[in-house]
User: What shape does this take?
Amino acid sequence: MPISFRELFVTFALIGIFVFAGIAFIVKVQTDNDVGDTILKNEFINRTYINLETKLNDSRLQTQTQKQSFESEVPERGFGSLIIFAIIGVGQSFTGVVMGIYNVLIVLPAEVLNIPRVVIGVLTSIIIVSLVLLIWRVYRAGA
Assistant: This one.
């Protein structure tokens, strides 16, 4: 049975929400019960969280900078006069956000559960190939 892009997006969004809710629940329970060695003291979780927060802040600043430069520039009419630099900046910001989400959803649970890197590499390859095929399918359906 084929699955639509909307259903796939909603599924991934719900999975992300449940992962974040699960981590928040663990942190809240450990904080309320005065656990000595909480999950927040884990070096990898702290490093991942700090990296994610830094990337999100950098992405926000880059996005605001790109917005200001996009609004201040007056585009010239002419052959091939696309504003490529703004598109590239948005692409870089989007890539940073995607990698941060990947680190939280894939890398962090893999480190906590001590899953071998080969398994994570295979799962990542399957996800990437599936996404490429889904994008191709959406493109073919729209053409």
Summary: Residues 1-41 form one domain.
